[in-house]
Input
Amino acid sequence: MLFNSIEFILFFPIVTILFYLLPHNYRWLMLLGASCFFYMWFIPKYILILLITIAIDYTAGILIEQWSDDAKLKKRCLIVSIISTCLVLFIFKYLNFCSANFVALAQHFGWAHPNKILNIALPIGLSFHTFQSLSYVIEVYRGNQKAERHFGYYALYVMFYPQLVTGPIERPQNLLRQLHEEKTLNYDNIANGLRLILFGLFLKMVVADNLGQYVDQIYANPQDFNTLDITLGMVFYSFQIYGDFFGYSSIALGCALAMGFTLIDNFKAPYQANSIQEFWRRWHISLSTWFRDYLYIPLGGNRVAVPRWALNTLIVFTVCGIWHGANWTFMIWGFAYGVLLILERGLRNIHVFDKIASRSGKTIIKVVNIAKTFVIVTLLWSVFRATSFANLHDVFSAWIHNSSVASQLHVNAITWIALAAFIVIDLILKQNRFDKWCGEQHPYTRWILYAVMIFSIIVFSSVQHYPFIYFQF
Output
């Protein structure tokens, strides 16, 4: 079920009202049933895949805790759990990709090969709830989380509908604990939750979707557009993916908060970052911290020699790229970020920016660094957005060579206004969250803002319907 659908407009209030009407002991059951219904709205049979990963990691958590005195058995159980859960992800997300690449390699060398591609679709949100399941098992193994003995509560931890499909990726210490707590009706939670939902719908339907219609034109036929058009398309995609994903995360946080649950903030003004490292501290925070805690630090993190740290960084960001999709463009995208972080650290170590700052002023340097970071991120989003290497080549070739071609991109005023509004809001919210900032405003200001957003959603939503971008991951 999509957050920006008529069905969800009915689903959300019904589930929230039932949550508060039911006694605490029955709320988990209602929420689990609602979450199953929410997920089955897409492809019903794929809920069986989700139940397989839930059963594997639920059992693994109990066994790991039972064998806490036997380090070998405990570790074997963890490994089996990780492999089993990741195998499900591999089959549905990467098997066809690996098979297609093997076929291409075999054809190149003239080997005999079976050309078999499985007719399977990627279950929506598989990467997200796989990582959420893995975080539970790892935390139980580390002794930071007690194994959940109630299968229903554990299933709800994985399937909690607000963040089931596109995150944020929660940790058991935060969400599982809250699921056991008895929640009481609270006006502030309801009000702030609704504010976040309204804000998220505005970002998705008015900002991201209006930008998306121009981005799609350019990436579908880049040869038809000139250098300026393609540059605008790249910038538009930077804000499209941000508005789209930030919008989803805001709605997810709002739905959960309306029932008293607090989820992790996934974004903190990432385009105001003045370095690549800071960008990743502000972008998709639940994923970047997941990789930090469960891959980067176990590899040694930054507590190792510089060459090993560089290798760790490349591994983490290449895996991050692969996590996003079974395509070489994603792998290159992640690897490029690893290289940039290594170069960034090298430049800091020779104090180049300190010398410049002492001459030109720290404020100017900060602005320059923010602009530089945004340009780099935007160029890499072009790699991320491209459907293939051929498409990526066409985009950059046209970008470089089509400077003399007449402009074909005609952007309507609504899109420019929506983009400008998003940028202003993002600047305002650098150190705050929309619901909290909104609650601090005068009531007249708040209600005018609500009215403008609701009117914009009704009148200025894109005529084209776009699924949330991160659904494909």
